[in-house]
From TrEMBL:
<dbReference type="GO" id="GO:0005978">
    <property type="term" value="P:glycogen biosynthetic process"/>
</dbReference>
<keyword id="KW-0548">Nucleotidyltransferase</keyword>
<keyword id="KW-0808">Transferase</keyword>
<protein>
    <submittedName>
        <fullName>Glucose-1-phosphate adenylyltransferase subunit GlgD</fullName>
        <ecNumber>2.7.7.27</ecNumber>
    </submittedName>
</protein>
<feature type="domain" description="Nucleotidyl transferase">
    <location>
        <begin position="22"/>
        <end position="155"/>
    </location>
</feature>
<dbReference type="InterPro" id="IPR011831">
    <property type="entry name" value="ADP-Glc_PPase"/>
</dbReference>
<dbReference type="GO" id="GO:0008878">
    <property type="term" value="F:glucose-1-phosphate adenylyltransferase activity"/>
</dbReference>
<comment type="similarity">
    <text>Belongs to the bacterial/plant glucose-1-phosphate adenylyltransferase family.</text>
</comment>
<dbReference type="InterPro" id="IPR011832">
    <property type="entry name" value="GlgDAde_trans"/>
</dbReference>
<dbReference type="InterPro" id="IPR029044">
    <property type="entry name" value="Nucleotide-diphossugar_trans"/>
</dbReference>
<dbReference type="Pfam" id="PF00483">
    <property type="entry name" value="NTP_transferase"/>
</dbReference>
<dbReference type="InterPro" id="IPR005835">
    <property type="entry name" value="NTP_transferase_dom"/>
</dbReference>
């Protein structure tokens, strides 16, 4: 039985940032923004505006209490009704590690299988973006690929070494990806926002395979590689975006 058409997986960051002066006692997701807001409010608002009512947040166990304290019941994002769901999954791998323990995918797969959704969107809290996810959902539904990725053209100064740069062909499909190289002489780059829309049954199948590995990788690395393998449709976003990758970029956002 289909319960929700869309489900969401919300992570903390797209990579490990050297922001210890700000994140010693709380994750990036709960950093203040604009006085009364937190960075996690941006993706949660995008999900709420798109009508997504089933969200699974996956966070490293250190200092997770600030996320619980801020979200509480999830009422502000429509996640506290009878037919809405918000879950927090916790894993104990070091935040800078690219691999995870078995509990990571056990939690994710349980959530996805119970969601009954057609499509799943994966996104993070350190890329502040005012995106209409309904547009991405619609475009994904019109393509034959099981995965769609959102990217934005950015200047070198706005990107860090944890961000993935996409090679996109003339038909808007992903050919390859690599981590940003600050030594590159290019003026602009196709930076992945690490927002992915995927077919849920297809995602479950591939995450089950990843979970069988001795050292499974975090979701973002799996999705980046699958985007290349499947020739994902690449959606170019042209609106506001702030890439929070350093103390300086945080205060400039």
């Amino acid at each position: 039985m289909k319960i929700d058409k869309y489900s969401a997986i919300l992570g903390n960051t797209v990579g490990f940032h050297n922001m210890s002066t700000l994140t010693d006692h709380r994750p990036v997701a709960s950093l203040p923004f604009g006085g009364k807001y937190r960075l996690i409010d941006f993706p949660l608002s995008s999900l709420a505006n798109a009508g997504v009512r089933s969200v699974f947040g996956i966070f490293q166990q250190d200092n997770i209490s600030s996320v619980f304290d801020h979200i509480r019941s999830g009422r502000e994002w429509g996640l506290s009704t009878l037919l809405s769901h918000y879950y927090l999954g916790i894993y104990n791998t070091r935040v800078e590690s690219s691999t995870v323990g078995k509990e990571y995918y056990q939690q994710l797969l349980t959530y996805l299988k119970r969601s009954g959704s057609n499509q799943t969107v994966a996104l993070n809290c350190d890329v502040l973006i005012n995106i209409d996810l309904n547009q991405v959902f619609h475009l994904h539904s019109t393509t034959k690929e099981p995965i769609t990725v959102v990217y934005k053209k950015l200047a070198k100064k706005d990107i860090s070494e944890v961000n993935a740069i996409l090679d996109v062909d003339e038909t808007d499909h992903v050919l390859s990806h690599k981590l940003f190289d600050s030594k590159s002489t290019a003026e602009t780059f196709n930076m992945s926002t690490d927002i992915f829309v995927v077919d849920t049954p297809w995602l479950i199948e591939h995450l089950e395979e990843e979970a069988k590995k001795e050292h499974p990788e975090k979701l973002r690395y799996v999705l980046r590689d699958l985007a290349v393998k499947e020739g994902a449709f690449a959606y170019e976003y042209t609106g506001y975006l702030a890439n929070i990758h350093s103390v300086k970029s945080y205060y400039q956002a």
